[in-house]
Amino acid sequence: EHEDTDLLLQEQLEKQNYGAAAEDGTRCPSVSVSRISPTKRDCLVVAVLCFGNLINFIDWFIVPGILLDIQKYFGLSDGETGLLQTVFTLCYMLAAPIFGYLGDCYNRKIILGAGIFFWSGVTLGSSFITESHYRIFVLSRGLVGIGSASYSTIAPTIIADLFEEGKRTTVLSIFYIFIPVGSGCGYILAAGVAESTGDWHWAFRVTPCMGGLALLLLILLVPHRIQRRTAAHRALSISGTVRREMPDEMPDVHRTAKTTWCQDVGSLAQNCSFVCSSLGLTAMAFVTGALGVWMPLFLYRAQVVQGIVPPCLQESCNSSNSLIFGGITIGTGILGIIAGAEAARRLRKINNKADPLICATSMFISALCLYIALMVAQTNILSTFIFIALGELFLSVNWAVVTDILLYVVAPRRQSTAIALQILVSHLLGDAGSPYLIGIISNAVQAGNVPSLQWSFRSMQYSFVTCAFVGVLGGAFFLLTSFYIEEDREEAQR
Q1: CA distances from 368 to 34, 284, 459 (A)
Q2: Residue 363 has what pLDDT?
């Protein structure tokens, strides 16, 4: 009965879609997908979105996976090396609000497709840059960040349109599992291709092929028109009734988003749960950004100090730490996101504040584990790997939970804008600056001491202590979120 109702709703709401519909009434080529059952259609859409998210984060972490080779190839200091990921993230975050606005106004499928095509093409082009053109390489990373912003901003809102709150948490968990999986695969793919070919440039020629496949799947399997989930739609779904005049009564999303965007931003700034949880996410982004870029290099320097591996003097450097760290990222990411979603699902039944409390607890534990990992790195590399894995595990617990907090404390009409603003803030104050900041601190420590392998390691160790402090700060913001979340959730429902 529910599926029949959805089919009737889809038929009645055909004019209301991801963006501006064609006014001439012509049907798009992918409309045949909409003729299958809504459940199967939604599964196909989610599968395509997850595959795109996988490729998106593989591209994010190709550079950290072969950071030692790139640093040696261009002759970079730690500060200049960190600038690569900082430029990427800055462009990503600055583009996110633009795509958030476009996602609320125009066809989301077209924006997603254009983003995939753009970042895949730029990634391929960057593989042909020579050592004398470091600035062009930096520029290419910034352009890839712009393409990635289109995907990360819009894809979660499509999932929010397709699923009610109960199922949405599960589906978002599946979607966000591909953040750590893609990140880990980025390390593994980059290190594996560089080692097998003897040339790190080939690592940038694999994901464009995957991006082409994702674009083809998007065109063929994702319907051009799927109704946005609005309050009226939810009410009709619950009652199981459809009225003929409903399309005319539904709000004009295109016009509303244009005329009230500034008011929406002001309203979000007054939403305490949204603001505090976004600051908590910012702390998460700061820590994950620094770890993602520098941890393989830190582990390499720790092993050099312990005499486990020799210094890199040959043409292609040892990338085994990237392979191990990539595996840790995949395993802890999957386990952490599943554990976080399941804990949230169970604890919500007994505590309405469960989500922010879960996030706060995991941040505090993660900060402690990372601090211990830094302290034992010089003497016991195995213990370092164990505590890094635990730190990443508890960080990963929060990914789907934080997004779900946003989706139920913000009204559906404002969700694309809210996600875009959250991306802007979390990256501006988080992982946009943390890789560069860690590199700058490392440079400063090395400059104040006699150059040596020992101080090369210690400079990175001292820099990473900043991450433990920021992790504790993030836990405090999530704890503060718990004081406001019930009131803001009720307001969003109204």
Answers
A1: 49, 14, 20
A2: 96
- The domains of the chain, with CATH numbers, are 38-223 (1.20.1250.20), 265-493 (1.20.1250.20)
Question: Residue type at 289?
Answer: G
Packing angle of the helix pair 78-105, 134-162 (nearest 10 deg): 40
Q: Residue 235: is it exposed, middle or buried by C-beta count within 10 angstroms (0-12/13-18/19+)?
A: exposed
**Over the stretch 228-238, which tens digit does the pLDDT of each residue have?**
555 444 443 33
* Residue linked to tokens 């349109």: 161
Give the CA distances from residue 259 to residues 101, 166, 264, 278, 458, in Å, rounded to whole numbers and listed in that order: 11, 32, 10, 25, 54
Amino acid identity, residue 43?
C
The answer to whether residue 430 scores a pLDDT higher than 60 is yes
Phi-psi region of 307 (alpha: psi -120 to 50; beta: other; left: phi over 0): left
Q: What is the DSSP annotation of 334-399?
A: HHHHHHHHHHHHHHTTT-TTHHHHHHHHHHHHHHHHHHHHHHHTTT-HHHHHHHHHHHHHHHHTTH
Residue 317: Cβ-neighbour burial (10 angstroms; 0-12, 13-18, 19+): buried
Give the global pTM: 0.73
Helix axes 399-409, 165-197, angle to 10 degrees: 140
